[in-house]
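Input (HutD family protein):
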Amino acid sequence: MEVRDMDFRLIRLADTQQLRWKNGAGAARSIWREGDVASPDWELAVAEMTGTQPFSSYPGVDRSLFVTEGALVIRSEVRDVTLTPLSEGLEFPGEEVITGTSPGEGVMLDFNILTRRSVCRHSAVRRLGGQGTELSVAGGWTVVHAALGTVCVSAGEDVTLHQGDTLILRGSADTPKTVKLRIGSGSAAITAEILPR
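Output:
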């Protein structure tokens, strides 16, 4: 599908496959893997966990994690931080030895961005409900993930994302495009830009 000369990939959460973490300690839904499946250039996933679990090791990979449901206490030699659905995302190297704890009895959900350091880089931000903004789509990939509620993306046609859905756009560096983002009241989105090195 194309929208105004942009590659356009819409991934509904219900269509994703549930997998185990790389280390087998938790469950995840793989949203997208770009490049080789076994060793992707970049990857998007939604993970879930309960209790206390060690994070998988990803040498050579930079990661960003955004909690979308519940809470997550992250501990390592260099950090001790609690993340919630109102927190900014946490950026960390995939080599870092981390233990995560989901306090209470509920399931913690988080949205993950992983980029192979030698190939590409990424930046990401959480955007809260009631906001409208514009995103530039150029030579890399632009990601919009509905973290809570509904998010509408307008790029020549309107696309509505429901909680857990993800939209991936790729344009041309020669002809950058702009898309409009409308986040419903009480909703939240995570947007990311992934650029080749």
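The mean pLDDT is 92.
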